[in-house]
Design a protein that fits this description.
Layout lengths: L16 H43 L4 H28 L4 H11 L1 H13 L2 H5 L4 H15 L11 H23 L1 H12 L11 E5 L3 E5 L4 E9 L7 E6 L3 E6 L4 E6 L6 E7 L2 E10 L4 E9 L9 E4 L4 E5 L3 E8 L3 E8 L2 E2 L4 E3 L2 E3 L3 E2 L5 E8 L9 E8 L5 E3 L6 E5 L4 E8 L4 E10 L7 H7 L1 E3 L7 E8 L11 E10 L7 E2 L3 E6 L1 H38 L6 H36 L7 H33 L32 H59 L1 H4 L9 H35 L2 H12 L2 H13 L3 H22 L3 H4 L9 H33 L6 H28 L6 H19 L5 H28 L4 H17 L54 H13 L5 H4 L5
Parallel strand pairs: 2-8, 11-19, 21-28
Antiparallel strand pairs: 1-3, 3-6, 4-5, 4-7, 7-8, 9-10, 9-12, 12-16, 12-17, 13-14, 13-18, 15-16, 18-19, 20-22, 22-25, 23-24, 23-26, 26-27, 26-28
Helix pairs in contact: 1-2, 1-7, 1-8, 3-4, 4-6, 7-8, 10-11, 10-13, 11-12, 11-24, 12-13, 12-20, 12-24, 13-15, 13-18, 15-16, 15-17, 17-18, 20-21, 20-23, 20-24, 21-22, 22-23, 23-25
Length: about 1050
C-alpha cells in the first residue's frame, strides 16, 4: 500500500463499472484485514506484557518500576497499532493508484496496465494530450482482462494469520495459567494493571521465616529456620540464600522446613532467601552478648568481730571470705534481663531478684562453699558465652602478730637508761589487746597492775588492723640491779573467741653497770684495732706491689702493666672502703660510749679526732692513690704528644741525650706519684695505730680503775646485806639457820665467790698492763694485790659467810671494800696533770679549738642525758607508780638535773665565747625549773616542758658552738672532729622518733634559735615539737633538728673550697 498521490482523483464515470466494483471489493477486504491486524497487535501487546509480568513474578518480586514499564510497553503497542490504522484509513486515505499498485504486486502485467489507465485518467494525463480513443481502447482491454481475476485477492492475510496464531497461543497460555493458577493469575493481573500499588506478589511457594529481623551475636554463626508450603504440583527443593556482605549459602527443603547456618556478621546486613518463585528477605543485626557491668558482694562479718558489713568488688572473679561470713551478691549487665541463675556451691541458690538490668541475691551462707557460677539471659534471649565463675577463698581468722622492730634479741643497756620498746602489732581483722610481759632472772617481776597500766594497750576501735606503740622500760625505776638479766616477750589478742594470745620470741636485756659497759667498749675498740692492722698490712702489700711494678716498668708489656695496675687500684679502693667501714663502726662505738658517764669528755674528743682522721684518710688520700694507679694503668694515646721539654732542652745539642737521662713517661710519673702517696698512707696508718693504741691504753687504765671500784661497791653492798640479817642469825650454827636465811647466805657466798674470781682476773690484767706500759701505779697495785693475797682473802671471807660467822665476815668485807677503793684511786689519773700539757707544742688557736671540741662533746652528752631524764620523768608520771617510790625517784632525778646544772656552769667557764653566755643562762634557767619541779615530786606537763626547753636550748648551744668552730678554722682536724660528732648526733637521731602522747612517751627535740655565733648572721630554725623515737638496742635516738642543717651545709661548703688534689686539677676523675 502506497501513500495517496497528489494527482486529481479519477472520476468514477471514467472507469468501467466492473473495474469500479473490483476496486470496491479490494478496498473492503483491505479495510477488514488492517483493522483486524490492528486489533490483533493490540491484544498481542497486552498479552505479552501481562505474561511477561506473570513470568517475572514467578521468579522474583517484580519491582513496581518494571511492572509499570511492562504496562506502558503494552499500552504503547496498542497505541502504535491504533495510530497505524488511523493513519491508513483516516488521516491519509488511499487512491486508485494506491490500490492499483497493490494489484500490481500480485498481478504484475495486469497491474501495470491497470496502473497505466488509472494514471491516464487523471487530469494531469489529460493535459498531456493523449488520445481519447486510445485511452478508451486501453480501458476496454483492461476491463476484459480483469474479468478473469479478483482484485481482492491482492490483499495478503498471511501476516494477520501469523499474528492471530501467536495471539491465539498467548491466549491459550493465559487461559491455561488462569485455569491452573487462578490465584497467581489474578494476583499477577492486579499487580500488572496497578503497577504502583503494594499488592503482595503471589507465589506458588510460600516461605514463612521464624522472624523478619534476626538479632545475632556479633561475629558468631547463627541458624535461621523457615516453613515451606506449595500451592502447585511444582515443589522445588533447592534453597539459596544471599547475605549482602558477600556470603551465599545453599540448602534444601526437608520435610517442609528450611534450616540454614549463616556465617557470623559484624555489621547490619540483609538476607535474601529464594525457594522456587519465592524470594523472602530479612534483616540481620549483629549485637554483642550481654556482658556483666558490675558484680559485687555485701559481706556480713561474723558477729564476734562487731564490724559493719563490707563491700567487695568481684570483677576479678575472686571472693575472699572470712569463715562464717554471709554474702549477698549484687550485679548488673548491659541489657535488660529476663532471667538470672546462680549456682552457689553444690546446690542452686534461691531465685534472684531482677530489676531491669540489675539482680540481687538473698543473704547466702558461705560455709563449705568454694565456688559459684552465674548465668543470665537478656530480654533478647541471648546469654553470655559461658557461665561467669567465681572462686571463693575461705580464709580463717589469722592469729595476730606482734613485733619489736628496733629491739635486738640479745642486748644490753645501762642501769641508768630508759629503753624505748617500739611495738608493732598487726591483725587481719582487728586488734583487741596487746602488751609485753617481763621479769628478771634475779626475781624482779612487775605486779599485774604495773603490767596492765605500763605495758598493756588496746586498740581504739575494733577495726584497727595495725598499731605502732612504744612502751618504756627503766631498770632503775623497777629496781633492777646491774648484772641482772631481763627476759621479756610481747603478747597480742584479737577478737576470735577462745584464742590464746600470740607471743613474740623471748628477748633478753642485760642490765650493765657503767664499768661493764666501759669494758665492752674497750673490747670493741680492740677489735677495731685488729682490723686497722689488717688494713695496714694490705696497704703495705699494695705499696710493695707498686714498688715492684715501678722497678719492672720498662720490662713489662703494656697489657701486663695495665693488668697489674688495675688490680692494685682495685685493691686500693677496697682497702679504702674497708677503712671507711671501720671509721663508721668506730663512730657507732663512740656513739654508744657517749651514754656512759665513766668516759671523760677529753677521751671522747680524742676518739672523735682519731675517727675523723681515719675517715679523711679513707675518703681522700687512699682514693687519690687509687686514682693515680688508674691513671698509670691508662696507656697514652698514640696521637698524643710526649711531654714537652723545658725551654733549655729545646735547642739542638752537639751531643745526643742518652736514653737513661730521658724524662719519665706520664704513666711512670703517675706510678711514682702513687708510690709516694702509698708511703704517706702507710705513715698515716702507723700514726692511727699509735693513736688507737694510746686510746686503748687510756681506756683500759680507766676501766681497770672502775672495775676495782666496782668490786669495792659490791663488797660494800654485801656487808650491808650481811648486817641486815645479823640479828636473826647471830650465834646460830649453819644447820640451825632458818631456810630463808640459809638460802640468803648461800646466795651471798656465791656473790663473794664471783668477786674473788673477778679480782683474780683483774689482778692479772693490771700486771699485764704494767708490763706493756711500765706505768708505776699499775705495778704498785699489782704487787699490792699479790702481797695481800686478794683471791685467797676473798675466798676465806666466803667460807665465813657460809659458816654464819657474820661479824668477822662483815669486818673482812669492809676491809676489802676500802682496799679496792684505795687501789682504784691509785690508778685514776690526776685531772690537773692530765690536762697540764694541753698547750705544749701548739699555738693558742689550736688549743682553743680543742677546748671547743671537748665542750661540744660535753654539750652533746648533756643533751643525751637530758633526753633520758625527760623519758624517766614521763615514766614516773604513769598511774602504776606508787607515791612513795615516785617521791624517791623524783628526788633522784632532781639531783641529776642539779648535777647537770653544775656541769653546765663548768662548761660555760671553759668556753671563751661571751656571746654564748645568754644561751647558757637560758639553759640553766630551764634546768632549774625542771629540778625544782622534780624536787617537789612533780612529773606533770610543766616539768616535762621545762626539760624539753632545756633540750631545745642545748641544741641551739651545740649549733652555735659548732658554727663558731667552723668559722675559726674550718679545715683543722679539731673542726673536722666536731663535724664528725655532729654526724654522730644526726645518726643517733635518725634511729627513731618519740611520740607526743603520754602513753608513748616523748623524746626528741629541736629548738628554734635566732642567736648568732660571733658576727654571723641568719637564724637557725628547728622543730620544737616532740616526735616519736625508736630505741635501737639501748640509749635513745633522735630526729635531726632542722637547725643542724645550716651547720652541715657550712661544713661541706668549706670542704668544697679546699684545694683539689693535683691529679684532679690535671683532669683526673674524683
Amino acid at each position: 500500500m502506497q501513500q495517496v498521490s497528489s494527482h486529481k482523483r479519477m472520476e468514477s464515470h471514467d472507469l468501467p463499472v466492473r473495474l469500479r466494483e473490483q476496486f470496491s471489493l479490494l478496498k473492503a477486504k483491505l479495510w477488514r484485514v488492517e483493522i483486524s491486524t490492528c486489533l490483533v497487535w493490540m491484544v498481542l501487546s497486552l498479552l505479552a506484557s501481562f505474561l511477561g509480568s506473570f513470568s517475572l513474578d514467578r521468579w522474583h518480586d517484580t519491582p513496581n518500576a518494571v511492572r509499570g514499564a511492562l504496562l506502558l510497553t503494552a499500552l504503547a503497542g496498542c497505541g502504535v497499532a491504533l495510530a497505524w490504522w488511523l493513519w491508513r484509513w483516516v488521516l491519509a486515505q488511499r487512491h486508485l493508484g494506491d490500490y492499483s499498485r497493490l494489484v500490481q504486486r500480485r498481478y504484475h502485467i495486469l497491474g501495470d496496465r491497470l496502473l497505466g489507465i488509472v494514471e491516464l485518467s487523471s487530469d494531469q494525463a489529460s493535459e498531456r494530450g493523449h488520445s481519447e480513443e486510445l485511452y478508451r481502447a486501453a480501458v476496454s482491454q483492461v476491463e476484459r482482462d480483469a474479468r478473469q481475476i479478483a482484485f481482492a485477492d491482492a490483499v495478503s492475510i498471511k501476516g494477520l494469520r501469523r499474528l492471530s496464531v501467536l495471539n491465539a497461543f498467548l491466549l491459550v497460555v493465559a487461559g491455561t495459567l488462569w485455569a491452573l493458577f487462578p490465584g497467581a493469575f489474578s494476583n499477577a493481573w492486579q499487580r500488572w494493571i496497578q503497577p504502583q500499588s503494594d499488592i503482595q506478589r503471589y507465589t506458588l511457594v510460600r516461605v514463612t521465616l521464624d522472624r523478619d529481623n534476626y538479632l545475632m551475636i556479633r561475629g558468631e554463626p547463627f541458624t535461621i529456620q523457615a516453613g515451606v508450603e506449595y500451592d502447585s504440583l511444582w515443589k522445588p527443593q533447592k534453597v539459596s540464600a544471599w547475605v549482602d556482605t558477600g556470603y551465599q549459602i545453599e540448602g534444601e527443603v526437608v520435610d517442609g522446613r528450611i534450616t540454614l547456618e549463616i556465617p557470623g556478621q559484624f555489621k547490619k546486613s540483609s538476607l535474601t532467601l529464594v525457594v522456587g518463585d519465592n524470594t523472602t528477605e530479612a534483616s540481620i543485626e549483629p549485637v554483642l552478648r550481654p556482658t556483666l557491668t558490675h558484680l559485687g558482694a555485701h559481706i556480713r562479718m561474723p558477729a564476734y568481730l562487731g564490724l559493719p558489713n563490707e563491700h567487695s568488688d568481684l570483677q576479678s572473679g575472686q571472693l575472699d571470705l572470712l569463715e562464717g561470713a554471709g554474702v549477698m551478691l549484687t550485679g548488673a549487665v548491659n541489657r535488660a534481663l529476663s532471667s538470672v541463675q546462680l549456682q552457689w556451691g553444690e546446690s542452686l541458690s534461691p531465685a534472684l531478684a531482677i530489676e531491669q538490668t540489675s539482680f540481687q541475691s538473698d543473704w547466702l551462707d558461705s560455709q563449705d562453699v568454694y565456688s559459684a557460677s552465674i548465668e543470665w539471659e537478656d530480654h533478647l534471649g541471648f546469654t553470655q558465652a559461658r557461665p561467669w565463675t567465681l572462686a571463693i577463698r575461705q580464709q580463717a581468722d589469722q592469729t595476730p602478730g606482734i613485733q619489736f622492730p628496733q629491739l635486738f634479741r640479745e642486748m644490753a643497756i645501762l642501769e641508768t637508761e630508759a629503753l624505748e620498746i617500739q611495738t608493732r602489732v598487726i591483725d587481719d581483722y582487728g586488734i583487741k589487746e596487746f602488751g609485753l610481759v617481763w621479769k628478771s632472772v634475779d626475781g624482779v617481776e612487775p605486779s599485774a597492775e604495773t603490767l596492765a597500766l605500763d605495758f598493756t594497750d588496746a586498740s581504739l576501735n575494733r577495726s584497727q588492723k595495725e598499731l605502732n606503740v612504744s612502751f618504756y622500760f627503766s631498770p632503775n625505776l623497777y629496781g633492777i640491779a646491774p648484772g641482772d638479766l631481763v627476759e621479756l616477750y610481747g603478747h597480742v589478742t584479737d577478737f576470735y573467741p577462745g584464742r590464746e594470745p600470740s607471743q613474740t620470741p623471748l628477748y633478753r636485756i642485760h642490765i650493765v653497770s657503767s664499768v661493764e659497759h666501759a669494758e665492752r667498749i674497750r673490747q670493741q675498740l680492740e677489735t677495731l684495732m685488729t682490723e686497722i692492722e689488717d688494713v695496714s698490712r694490705l696497704e703495705q702489700s699494695i705499696a710493695d706491689a707498686t714498688n715492684e711494678t715501678l722497678e719492672d716498668f720498662d720490662n713489662l708489656s703494656p697489657e701486663d702493666l695495665e693488668s697489674r695496675l688495675e688490680d692494685q687500684a682495685t685493691d686500693q679502693k677496697l682497702n679504702a672502703g674497708h677503712l671507711s667501714e671501720l671509721a663508721q663502726k668506730g663512730m657507732e662505738t663512740l656513739r654508744d660510749a657517749m651514754r656512759n658517764p665513766a668516759f671523760s669528755n677529753e677521751m671522747m674528743s680524742e676518739w672523735s679526732q682519731t675517727l675523723s682522721e681515719m675517715q679523711e684518710l679513707a675518703q681522700q688520700q687512699m682514693q687519690e692513690a687509687a686514682q693515680a694507679l688508674e691513671q698509670a694503668a691508662t696507656p697514652p694515646s698514640p696521637s698524643s704528644p710526649s711531654s714537652p721539654s723545658p725551654p733549655s732542652q729545646s735547642k739542638p745539642s752537639s751531643q745526643q741525650t742518652s736514653p737513661a737521662s730521658s724524662s719519665p713517661s706520664p704513666q711512670e710519673q703517675a706510678l711514682q706519684e702513687a708510690q709516694q702517696q702509698e708511703q704517706e698512707i702507710l705513715e698515716a696508718l702507723q700514726d692511727l695505730q699509735a693513736m688507737v693504741n694510746e686510746d686503748l691504753d687510756k681506756l683500759q687504765a680507766l676501766t681497770l680503775a672502775q672495775r676495782l671500784r666496782g668490786l669495792g661497791q659490791t663488797e660494800s653492798e654485801l656487808e650491808s646485806s650481811l648486817m641486815d640479817g645479823a640479828e636473826s642469825t647471830l650465834g646460830l650454827f649453819t644447820d640451825e639457820l632458818p631456810p630463808r636465811w640459809r638460802a640468803a647466805h648461800q646466795k651471798l657466798g656465791e656473790t663473794q665467790q664471783e668477786t674473788a674470781g673477778k679480782a683474780g682476773e683483774l689482778q692479772e690484767e693490771i700486771g699485764r698492763f704494767f708490763e706493756r706500759t711500765q706505768q708505776e701505779p699499775y705495778g704498785e697495785v699489782s704487787e699490792a694485790m699479790k702481797e695481800k693475797q686478794t683471791v685467797e682473802g676473798l675466798t676465806a671471807t666466803q667460807e665465813m659467810i657460809l659458816k654464819n660467822i657474820t661479824m668477822d665476815a662483815a669486818d673482812q668485807i669492809a676491809v676489802w671494800a676500802r682496799q679496792f677503793e684505795t687501789w682504784a684511786s691509785q690508778l685514776e689519773p690526776d685531772e690537773e696533770s692530765e690536762g697540764a700539757g694541753g698547750g705544749e707544742g701548739e699555738g693558742g688557736g689550736e688549743d682553743q679549738q680543742q677546748d671547743l671540741t671537748e665542750q661540744l662533746m660535753a654539750l652533746l652528752r648533756m643533751r643525751e642525758s637530758e633526753l633520758n631524764l625527760r623519758m624517766q620523768t614521763r615514766l614516773l608520771d604513769r598511774p602504776s607508780q606508787q607515791q612513795a617510790n615516785k617521791e624517791t625517784r623524783t628526788k633522784e632525778l632532781s639531783k641529776q638535773q642539779s648535777d647537770m646544772q653544775e656541769a653546765l656552769l663548768d662548761i660555760r667557764a671553759e668556753v671563751p665565747l661571751p656571746f654564748m653566755d645568754p644561751v647558757f643562762e637560758e639553759i640553766h634557767g630551764h634546768m632549774g625549773n625542771a629540778a625544782d619541779g622534780l624536787a617537789r615530786g612533780e612529773t606533770h606537763a610543766e616539768v616535762v616542758e621545762a626539760e624539753t626547753q632545756s633540750i631545745n636550748t642545748l641544741t641551739d648551744a651545740i649549733n652555735l658552738l659548732n658554727e663558731q668552730a667552723q668559722k675559726n678554722n674550718p679545715s683543722s682536724s679539731a673542726s673536722q672532729s666536731m663535724s664528725l660528732m655532729m654526724q654522730m648526733m644526726m645518726a643517733s637521731q635518725s634511729m627513731g622518733q618519740q611520740s607526743n602522747s603520754p602513753q608513748d612517751g616523748g623524746s626528741s627535740a629541736g629548738g628554734d634559735t635566732d642567736r648568732q655565733a660571733g658576727d654571723s648572721t641568719g637564724a637557725d630554725e628547728g622543730d620544737a615539737a616532740e616526735s616519736r623515737t625508736v630505741s635501737k638496742g639501748s640509749g635513745q635516738a633522735f630526729n635531726l633538728p632542722a637547725e643542724f642543717r645550716k651547720s652541715f651545709e657550712l661544713y661541706f661548703q668549706q670542704l668544697e673550697q679546699l684545694s683539689p688534689p693535683e691529679n684532679l686539677s690535671n683532669g683526673g676523675t674524683p
